[in-house]
Amino acid sequence: MFFKSKKKEAEASGNGKKELLYRENIQVGCKADSQENIIRAVGQMLVDTGYVDQPYVEAMLEREKSFSTYMGNELALPHGVEAAKKEIKASGIAVMVFPEGTSWGKETVKIVIGIAGVGEEHLEILGVIADKMLAQDAAAELVEGDVDTVYRILSGKE
Predict the structure, then answer these.
(1) Any idea where the domains of the chain sit in the sequence?
(2) 79 labelled catalytic
(3) What are the backbone dihedrals phi and psi of residue 84, each rounded to the nearest 5 degrees, phi first?
(4) Which distant-in-sequence residues (6+ apart) come within 8 Å of 131 by Cβ?
(5) Distances (CA, A) of 103 to 37, 70, 81, 91, 132
(6) Do the beta carbons of residue 147 and residue 125 sit within 8 Å?
(7) Phi-psi category of 72—alpha, beta or left, where left has phi over 0 and alpha has psi -120 to 50?
(8) pLDDT tens for residues 67-121?
(9) Does the CA dihedral 7-8-9-12 come out positive or negative?
(10) In a 3-state reduction of DSSP, which class is residue 77?
């Protein structure tokens, strides 16, 4: 399993904690666009599902200006700068898949995963995704998969 299931824990404790990934935060078959537009789109998904407040999207763009969030293996993990932590309401991710690839600075990416992590959770999320994506077959399966495939791989749920 990629991420621990927090839904059952949340239900048991009654705190209603959000899951890290919802199917509505997965877009497959995306067409190439500018890096800024992609960051805005993935960030807006995080806003729309209540993970972050709107200013976090600008913080994601600011992070990209300071250093690239390209991780290798056709993967980018945009996330906000440290100063934007106050804009995060819950840890979550949003995924965009570009089967034909899209430009990310000097690189080409096929998978963009926007990340918002409460406290230090973003480091754990970044690490787990990076480790998972080092396997070429996992990346290929995500690129070729539908929403349910992407959800299963990244959440460990059916």
Answers:
(1) 21-155
(2) yes
(3) -90, 5
(4) none
(5) 11, 11, 22, 27, 22
(6) no
(7) left
(8) 999 988 899 999 999 889 999 999 999 999 999 999 999 999 999 999 999 988 8
(9) positive
(10) coil
Do 88 and 52 contact (CB within 8 A), yes or no?
yes
pLDDT score recorded for residue 6? 39
From edge to edge, which strands make up the β-sheet containing 26-27? 26-27, 92-104, 107-116, 75-76, 70-72
Question: Is 49:25 a contact under the CB 8 Å cutoff?
Answer: yes
The active-site residue out of 51, 64, 79, 122 is 79
Architecture of domain 21-155: 3-Layer(aba) Sandwich (3.40)
pLDDT of residue 69: 92
Output phi, psi for 75, to 5 deg.
Answer: -125, 135
100: exposed, middle or buried (C-beta count within 10 Å: 0-12, 13-18, 19+)? exposed
User: 3-class secondary structure for 9-56?
Assistant: HHHHHCCCCCCCCCHHHEECCCCCCCHHHHHHHHHHHHHHCCCECCHH
